[in-house]
Queue: 4 jobs
Job 1
Amino acid sequence: MEIIDSSSTQHNILPTANPAGFLLRFVAYIIDRLIVGFVSLAVIFPILAIMGISLFGLSELDTFRNFENLEDNEKVALVMAAIAAYSILIIIAVSINWLYYSLFESSERQATPGKMAVGIKVTSTNGQRISFLNATGRFFGKIISGMLFGFGYIMILFTEKKQGLHDLMAGTLVVKK
């Protein structure tokens, strides 16, 4: 594949790249969310059990119901424990998502299972496989895309190479195989 001279186009984007549109990317996203959701549950449920929380009820639920009857130091301890437990779960969930997307997108296949299912992959703007570090930047860029009321994702509909904000930030393209 030949790369176009950087003076003639932005970011050395390959002329033969066939960008994947919003719909294909959305279907891949749904597939990946289902997979990551199941993996997350498989990891988080045992942790919840260790922390004394079950799917069908919080073992400390009665304590929360009688919160006003607790001593101040017990209230503080209970709230701090809840915050710590929630923080641990958030860190685990973000880590699972980060590793899933970054490892798959920087792999030889350049795609998550969802992307593979719909026949798309992630490349650098010059068509090369991206590094784990680049995939990590792309993953955290997606958080920014979402924080902007989804505008970073909506950009896929309007940019020439169908890039979201996170793609532009990471210097990546999502292309059809």
Job 2
Amino acid sequence: METNKFNGTNYNDWLRNLRIVLDFENQGYVLDKPLPVILPEGSSPEERLTFEKWHEDNRKVRSIILASMTNEIQKQYDRLEDVPSIMLRMKDVYAVPDRHIRYAATKAFFGTKMAEGSSVQSHGVKMLSLVEKLEDLKAGLDNDTYIDVILQSLPPSYDPFIVNYNMNGLEKSIHELINMLVQYEATTHKSEPAVLVGEASTSKAKGKGARRWKRKKGKGTAVTATASTGGAPPAAPTGKGKGKVGGSQRSKVKGK
């Protein structure tokens, strides 16, 4: 409760966490049942013990509730002694109707899409949490609808998986579907060819935009480019120096 203090905007989440803590201590009944004020005359020893325990649990739960509020909100309720009175006033002021929560959860579930290249496991866990929230709110959606929406939320790279799933008439739980998607992701990633960097790529070690020129083996001085950074190779020799004489030079020789 320390990390989820009530701040005026998180009533439903705060109340859920509070119930989890109190249920663990078997004190959740204090939130909903009116605190008995008077012990009737002639009560049995068991009834007296129940009465005393109820008041003791009320004091403990009241302290937990007040300690889990921000200081400003705490001041609004620290004069109230019984827990049901505190909870009733808080509900009137801060509770969000289930209808609004259900609308927001439904919108998030149908609108969530997985980005291409992101983790399908993380996406599946997110969709599963939305499903559980809709179930708690009694949204009335069945398993087939949940499965369809999850499949529709996947990126195009999962189209082969979706086609195979539908053609084979598979019927899986949401947990099983997520496990299948994780296995599919692992398989497809392993089968993808490695991206090879060929000779034509620019090497950072040689400087940005650097080009490497390679002399062909054999006679002559022709030169070819082995880089794809643009630009033309050096002009062919004109026949000066060693090597074969170019065509224009041969014509001049014959004419002499």
Job 3
Amino acid sequence: MPRVILLNPFVKHYAGSVFDLNEAVYPSDWDVDERNLEKQSRFANKIYLLPDAGNGRSAELPVQDTMLCSEEIFININIKNGPCRITAVKEHPIDPETIQLITERFLKVQLEGTLFPFNNNILLLSTGEKKFDTIEIYDSLSNQKIQQFDGFSDTKTINFQEAYPGFYRVLFFNSQMPVLELSLFKNFPLVVSPIKYTNRFQCIPTVW
């Protein structure tokens, strides 16, 4: 699994962001017709499939906008210490005919902590009578469920302190029906920028 540095701003991710991604592939508009393969290969630019472009939506990130991250950069650094960022909140109406489901009627979502280093807790405050009975957390890169919570009180904290940097989805259920979905990105603890005309990097703490 390549670890890459983003060289240029991309959608809602800033330059210097670091990602662990699956291997690069050809873009979705790649023509698989064997008669065109040789011609295409001369001009093809591979892409990484980015689970979340910082707005809760997946995107195709050109490999040419990244570089491989040296393993030495994060030696002796706890990569779990980066801050979290909520990138999107998506509603799933319980009743298909109910189209005016308002998140604030049910839940207030916020990140706990306002100063670096962030406390990587998502604080969930119930603001209505409706309760969530199940919460599931998924790794968006592998699409694997990694954690589940049953039962929901008026206040619930989901701790991402021990989570590795990456892309996550948090799904809320009521009576086995999805009601709400959060998209979340946990950063690496350093923003890494290559210094021009050298083999060195500028590294600063990630604050957002």
Job 4
Amino acid sequence: MASSEPRPPSTAPSTPQSFDGILAAADLPPPGPDYYAARRSLWLTPRQTAQIAQAEPSTSRQRLEHLLSLSNDPEDEYIWKNGVGKVWTSLDAGGRFKRRLPLAMIIRVIHAAWVRDDTWPKGAVAPEPDDVLTGPPVTHIYSPIATEYPSSATTSRLASNDDDADADDNSKHSAC
């Protein structure tokens, strides 16, 4: 070994690394504002993506596209029973797709399921977001004033994984 410095794990240039893999390999600070900033920085760092061949969509994807094109009604029983319900059951169970699906298709499946189980009110429309940032992403947005006492300050014992936490530290947070 020529160097004693830790090196990031090597990945093949054609294989993108999952965010979970990046987190597992990262040397992150303990939970708190610095942890949030480091994790956010990792999330915003562009990763290599594999070049996906523009092949003909699978027959199951074509069938799902066809079903979703039949009706815009998320309560349509026909499309639910003929494939959308099965896709939702797989998603809800934490299943992963063998091939990628466009986000718009996945949103339609989730919307149909949420309307069916009354998670999403019938006929409701999502409001336009009012917190969308314009321009390039900002890397470190946190104010020392806003983060001096975290939102979990009233439940510091629950938020802390340290069994040997100093009682003085907990008392100053619980006074809020």
